[in-house]
């Protein structure tokens, strides 16, 4: 094409499509919305619905939701915000947004419902997926709730508050999508949806293992001397630090999940030379190995002589419930490769072809992470059997720590103050919500006393930023976990639960007690159905104003009468009972010496009378005060009594 012809061609194009060139010069191709807005989303009923985004500076934005229209002007930076008047529950609707006079700039979102939107946040027990929880195949198969929608915010770490999050789309609840949804949030949403008969939206912003401080804003953390120093330490960080940590994390998990240097082809072999390995009595966890704090891959081996009757038979090997990720080998062959101790399987089939007469070799490759790892007692849980005879695997094993490369150091910046708030909460503000459901606290157990301040800080922080008054903030108290202590003792987890209970003094808060449905061997108890149901009961009472019993008995006050301490409760429902046929358990009593003894306890009406022959002059009572308490006080509605203590003696986390 000649030069003259090119000029003529461009002149025609420009005359036909001037908007294309003007728009290109303006630097804005079209109106943009943050990713919290999308097809199939749920918008909050009963409030003035906020919608915001970016466009050409100084332009007029026209938005239509269903048949309702409204307008807004962009500021000098191109930012705009508008509000639709209140909608009742319903839909579906379309949302159309454009710059006035520029129809090519229009955005159209479809399939929008109006209902109740809940923000679900916290650490791994809120993140724990439906497909990981109890009865997953059955629950997934019947998950057909097109009016329940989830938006899962992708993990992200940021140094400053962001206007948008990294990734995430609204998804309908069906048998495919539900697998990845938060189990607690899903069972919560399902109950509310069925009872209220309105669409339910869940915005899921979670990250396992994270403390409350990372979900709190810099501005709020600066207001406390307890958090000021750590938030100021973030000023030395850069995005390059995060990038390096991400690379280390990839390498970290590659080592955990994939044996290095063909170690899995060499170390499990019967003829492998383990003469330089260290002996250890099993079962026990890594903290009892006597090697100090260790994080990395550990190999364990045991040679076991099987009776002649086992030869040529298919055997069953019970390895108990190992902690963390592990692979099991028998005479050099891989029998299983499993991830995390939440997998309840502990019995493994040994093919007859692998079984030798006499000596056989068992080998385990195990990730020792975060202070965990090893084989959990009791000893009778690890054995091999032909279903007739049984050979114990307890006793002497050999282990070695440095067979594979060391795990790279990971800074875990997701735990640093405010960084998840910046990347995963700030971009959601001020999207209209009904309230917050929260499950977190495990990562703050060593600073449980400070949690009395930290947790209310987060609640107040979010409420101030959402400008929706005292938004309902409903949360889950820590479950029972770890080994049962045979004697009354101090407990970080008990002190954390106490801090959570004290947070009920904040307005419009509600707490779900799950002290009866935890798992001694897993920080992730599988019964998320009941957690979601109980959390929804709190919402029924506090948010939807239903006349329901939503809590188990709560300590009210006590009176000392001779050798007895008489405990009064609120939330007794239809009356106090035990959850089993046994007498009351879980109460301990102490005198001025502050030494606690297990107490006798009996129910009289809506009170509990506590005493002990070992305490002549009692001054204090504790109930369910342990990591994993044995306790059975409930109301007749089956909701457990909330752990408590009547004393205010200094705890082990109070610095």
UniProtKB/TrEMBL annotation:
Q: Name one GO biological process term.
A: carbohydrate metabolic process
Q: Which InterPro entries match?
A: Galactose-bd-like_sf, SASA, SGNH_hydro_sf, SIAE
Would the keyword Coiled coil turn up in this protein's UniProt record? no
Position of the signal peptide? 1-24
Keyword Signal listed? The answer is yes
**Keywords, comma-separated and alphabetical:** Hydrolase, Signal
Give a single Pfam family match.
Answer: SASA
GO molecular function ontology, one term from the record? sialate O-acetylesterase activity
* Start and end residues of each Sialate O-acetylesterase domain: 116-234, 432-518
Top-level taxon in the UniProt lineage: Bacteria
Q: What is this protein called?
A: Sialate O-acetylesterase
What is the species listed in this Swiss-Prot or TrEMBL entry?
Mucilaginibacter mallensis
